[in-house]
Design brief:
Distance between the termini: 48 Å
Helix content: 55-70%
Radius of gyration: 18 Å
Number of strands: 0
Structural class: mainly alpha
Largest sheet: none
Amino acid sequence: MQTNGILHVWRLIYISILIVIPICAIIKTPLFIKNDPRLWEKLRVNVINVIIAMALVELEMQLGIVKFAQQESTYIECLVTGIVYILIVETHYAPWHYAMHHISFLYPIHKLHHSVIEVSPIDSYFMSHMDWLLSFVCIFIPFVWGFSISEKTHLGAMVFVGVTGILEHTPKWNPGHSIHHTKSSEHYTLMSGVWFNMIGEKIENRMPMLGKILKKI
């Protein structure tokens, strides 16, 4: 029997955090910065964002947009299906992330997240509610294209994205994303927290014509 959207999102976030905590302990990185004056603001925003994600996924399941398939028959099939699902998510998220930095009327959506310069794991969920909502739309967009994946495989794939997405806000794990928070036109990462070196340098420097177009938007 298929679970509901609220429980699915709760499992995703709960398992991701359980994995992140010991990793942070091993690499000796705190989950949040000591004496952070914005800590309670971040906690409040993060909690609301989790509730938004639960409501969104539950709605998508009720509307029949998200439908999980039967469990894949082999571990190899699970792995391949999960990897393909993540790649589809990234092909939607990467250009959207880039657009928020280079199209003036979109940047306010992403501005709150970049108000944090010295990042820590707690900052991975600290973004405007619209930014968070649209990120979760990207996470579930493969279902819109009719992609078939089981509930357990989807949970595993999204836990991977969740864990690496949190850890990218750990300078010891991913120094590139710390640079991205200080120099917002450089060092983009994928949703899964991988340092996306292809667009680590300003795209305008590599593709001048694209740079001129972006500046006019």
